[in-house]
Amino acid sequence: MEFISMIAEGFMGLFSAGGEQFVSWVTGIIPTLVCLMTAINSVIKLIGEEKVENFARKITKYTICRYTVLPILAVICLGNPMCYTFGRFVEEKYKPAYYDAAVSFVHPVTGLFPHANAGELFVYMGISAGITTLGLNTGELAIRYFIVGVIVIFIRGLLTEKIFAILTRNKA
Q: What mean pLDDT is predicted for residues 123-144?
């Protein structure tokens, strides 16, 4: 009987933990995202949706801008997960590659812009603690992370674009 009771308690504990997590989202990240979405949409409306889309289309014509400038601006300005909404400015065939570039940049930016992805901050802080223990400069680490991150997102964007093109070509 005690074994069945433990299983039942564990089973209900799982759902209680899920409920607590849900409440933390409702009181934490969801209002923040709604405010960010409202602010960004307001800025876009003030500037003019057509002007913003034209600017984004102009810069995303160039592969290097599509997989560096746009994801960098999105991650720094909006943070994770709101940065993915900038994909709306990219042509449909480039959206998977843009997403790959943006999702790959939310960690390397953390050292310089911790607000961009607070969830990844613990990883950077752990590494920087080791660097500090060695007596090395964490600022240099953050800059190196950022630079390597830009290189990686560009490569990933290119590769994902090519893979997506091959997959969609074979499907047709």
A: 88
